[in-house]
Amino acid sequence: MARLTGLWLMFCSLFFGIGSVAAQPSGPAQARSCPSVITACGCVITSTGTYTVGNDLNADQSSKPNCIEIAAPYSILNLKGFSVIGNGYYGTSIGILIRKGADHVVVEGGDEGTSTPANDAGMNGQYFPGTQSVVTQWNIAIEDDGDDAAIELFKDLGGNIFQQHDGNATAGIFFNGVKRSLAANFLASYNGQAGVIVKNSSGIHVSNLSTIGNHESGIWLDSSDDSTIATATAAGNGKYGIWLYDSSQNRIVDCNGTSGNGDTGILLGCGNQKCTGNIRSNNNRITNSGGPGNQMAGIVIEKHSNDNIVTITHNDGNPENHDMVDLNPHCGTNIWYNNTGLGNQNCIH
Known about the structure:
Order of helices and strands: HEEEEEEEEEEEEEEEEEEEEEEEEEEE
Oligomer: single chain
Shape: elongated
Number of strands: 27
């Protein structure tokens, strides 16, 4: 009897022990849901609503790679002018991530109509003072994986003239496989790759922006169509001001500030990517813009890209006969009309 009792106790111990182990959580803990006023990094917006930030945020407040993630569609996030600063180790970290499926989201860096403080150069111990937010020292400041987003009113999505080495490792804004999203009224400068990257997306609108001093490009469209770049400055970038790679039916309007870039002001084509005859940037429109004073060329259309129209652009001050360059014989089916500057072919006017 004693032996049976001992066996029974051993069985119970093993059974409940296994049960106890099975009840333990597996894998990393889930990020907490964001409160309506966010005061620390490391949360996810899981319910549709309006959310604000209550103080400066930084990566050291959480072990999570991203500061704020938005998983609920139709949500609004206003940073109220507070900064969102990474730890400089980058990795795959993102300051603000709009998740796939979180459509019709609004992300804004501050309130419209508020005035900027007179002291706006990082004095008095303030990291980045101002009424619009700064998001920097991440891999990507803001990534949009959801359709129909609106991103606006950011003072810096990257470094600035006083902190040129404090940008994001890859980009200020990354539109990743989305439709109909827009970004406006922001600066995205001194980032490791580009100010704005639009990849595998369509119907994107970026306007009233400045992208200066990024290591490669100011604005880069990669395999993205039917989008608009308007009223943009893309100057002093390492290679290209505005680069349309394998991207068609786009519009570049009122972009006169594409100067001082290390290679080309506005490029349609492969650039430094491996180029094949299947990589084409067709049916784009460039107007009331230009690429003056770049190191290699003003506006370039590479071979295999056709049906583009370039008109009313100003491209003086590039190396001889490289204000406007078309690498297709006799300009292919591209139209260059009523532009200023010198071209590499007689078909360029």
